[in-house]
Amino acid sequence: MHRRDKGGHCILRSMNAKERRLYHQIHPAKLAADTGSGIAAVILLANGQAVIGLALAIVVPVAATFALLRYADLEPQKRSRLGAYVKKYMTPAAQIQRLAGFAILCGAAWKGSYLLGVLGAALIVHAWTMGLLIPKDLR
């Protein structure tokens, strides 16, 4: 059964799939899942535990995404200031940059390269903060 807002509209159906894929990224559960599993994965990879580290890096974020896309009310995220920010700046290119940064960070942890680790982390931070650094109307 779907929850309904005060006007009787189905909450889960009030957004299209593209919007749900965008706003789920800033849901607190998704941010916690990605950050927690990412940190744990990097630590495991740095300690030579590739299978568990990679499984954690992939399974937890995918499961969080599936659960949020299927069950979460994402309207609060859409209406938030952060929602307005990601609508404007979290482009597919920025999302690819975040993923590439995480892949580089994981590879750096596995190989023991601090320099590559910093590069991967910097790509992730840049993707999230691009709108703060270079407003879209100036690009």
What does this structure look like?
There is one protein chain. This protein has 139 residues and is mainly α. It has a domain at 91-139. Helices cover 73% and strands 0% of the residues. It is built from 7 helices and no strands. It has helices at residues 17-23, 28-46, 50-71, 75-79, 81-89, 92-111, 114-133. Helix 2 runs antiparallel to helix 3, helix 2 (28-46) packs parallel to helix 6 and helix 6 (92-111) packs antiparallel against helix 7. The longest helix is centred in the middle third of the chain and has 22 residues, at 50-71. It is flat and about 55 Å long. The N and C termini lie far apart (44 Å). The mean pLDDT is 91.
Name a few traits of the molecule.
139 residues; mainly alpha; 73% helix; flat
Q: Main sheet, how many strands, which sense, barrel?
A: none
Strand content: under 5%
**Oligomeric grouping of the chains:** single chain
Percent of residues in helices comes to over 70%
* Number of DSSP E strands: 0
User: What is the 3D form?
Assistant: flat
User: Structural class, from secondary structure content?
Assistant: mainly alpha
Low-confidence stretches: none
Mean pLDDT: 91
> Could you spell the SSE succession in H and E letters?
HHHHHHH
Query: How far is it from the N-terminal to the C-terminal residue, by CA?
Result: 44 Å
Q: How many helical stretches? A: 7
Rg, rounded, reads 17 Å
Secondary structure elements and pairings:
Blueprint lengths: L16 H7 L4 H19 L3 H22 L3 H5 L1 H9 L2 H20 L2 H20 L6
Helix pairs in contact: 2-3, 2-6, 6-7
